[in-house]
Amino acid sequence: MWPFICQFIEKLFRETIEPAVRGANNHLSTFSFTKIDIGHQPLRINGVKVYTENVDKRQIILDLQISFVGNCEIDLEIKRYFCRAGVKSIQIHGTMRVILEPLIGDMPLIGALSLFFLRKPLLEINWTGLTNLLDVPGLNGLSDTIILDIISNYLVLPNRITVPLVSEVQIAQLRFPIPKGVLRIHFIEAQDLEGKDTYLKGIVKGKSDPYGIIRVGNQIFQSKVIKENLNPKWNEVYEALVYEHPGQELEIELFDEDPDKDDFLGSLMIDLIEVEKERLLDEWFTLDEVSKGKLHLKLEWLTLMPTADNLDQVLTSIRADKDQANDGLSSALLILYLDSARNLPVSYVLMDTLLS
């Protein structure tokens, strides 16, 4: 299948990624791919997990542990600035979810195929000419890491690639599904963190300036920094949409802010199935990958209701706690699907650019 997958990837680059890059920045309006060769080394699937519980009977959910290490040749240019760059090799490692839905009673038995990563995959790109690319006006504030994050987020939930296999399928509902629920994260406090700051060339141990990075899919939140404190209290609240479960996890990393490179203070990963089952978790969690430290979280699972019958009750519960209300807790979710547009004015700026 690999040669045909490569054909699909090339089409995706030219028809989806290229227009998206052009529209992202005025300086990239003449961006284009001049060559796309993904290489002969195929993608490896190292393991497959099939979900049989908590899934709709008209769908099949697979999680694929994928690994791709390929010598590819992708060339790009920005004609406006006579700038060229390229990619010599790409590595991708992560968990890709494949959803086959809806199941139908006629061939090919599957109405559509959806692909996405549950969380940001490990992505490494070996660039050629990246320095020239970053010299383009308006792009000189970017870096290799930021570019990787931008590319990764295009692949991560809630972004997805949906391929219809029959004409009757409602593609919009599959590409933009209603979230399964909302996760309210009370990022309260930590205790007994490691002291990373040192004085007198490391002889004297100091404290830390801790902050947290919270991720649910490609939704990322960053807490405030608490200066010189190993038992910080944040008392912040975040809300994240959950599109897929089972499989999605809450990821938290703590860091010590430093002028050069921030030090790692521990991490935590929580399966959202457990949160949904309990509805409310208020616990101290032991931090992973470090020798000590605990994190106090309060996690609420909020179910979406199709009508506004309970809206007054929800608003009352929010007003009951003024501290939380100040953090902007939500009471409802508005979903807007932009279908199409007609009779748009002609873009003379674009015409001038093309004519010049």
TrEMBL record:
Cross-referenced CDD domains: C2A_C2C_Synaptotagmin_like
Query: Know the name of this protein?
Result: ESYT2 protein
User: What keywords does the record list, in alphabetical order?
Assistant: Calcium, Cell membrane, Endoplasmic reticulum, Lipid transport, Lipid-binding, Membrane, Metal-binding, Repeat, Transmembrane, Transmembrane helix, Transport
The membrane-topology field of this record reads: Peripheral membrane protein; Multi-pass membrane protein
Ranked from the top, the taxonomy reads: Eukaryota, Metazoa, Chordata, Craniata, Vertebrata
Q: Does the keyword Transmembrane helix apply?
A: yes
Q: Which gene encodes it?
A: Esyt2_1
GO BP term, pick one: endoplasmic reticulum-plasma membrane tethering
According to its UniProt record, which protein family does this protein belong to?
Belongs to the extended synaptotagmin family.
Q: What coarse category fits the chief subcellular location reported for this protein?
A: membrane
A GO MF annotation of the entry reads: calcium ion binding
A Gene Ontology CC term for this entry? endoplasmic reticulum membrane
Q: Which domain of life is it from?
A: Eukaryota
- Residues forming coiled coils: none
In which compartments does the protein localize? Cell membrane; Endoplasmic reticulum membrane
Organism name? Ptilorrhoa leucosticta
What residues does the SMP-LTD domain cover? 1-166
In terms of PANTHER family, this protein maps to:
EXTENDED SYNAPTOTAGMIN-2, EXTENDED SYNAPTOTAGMIN-LIKE PROTEIN 2, ISOFORM C
- C2 domain location, by residue? 165-285
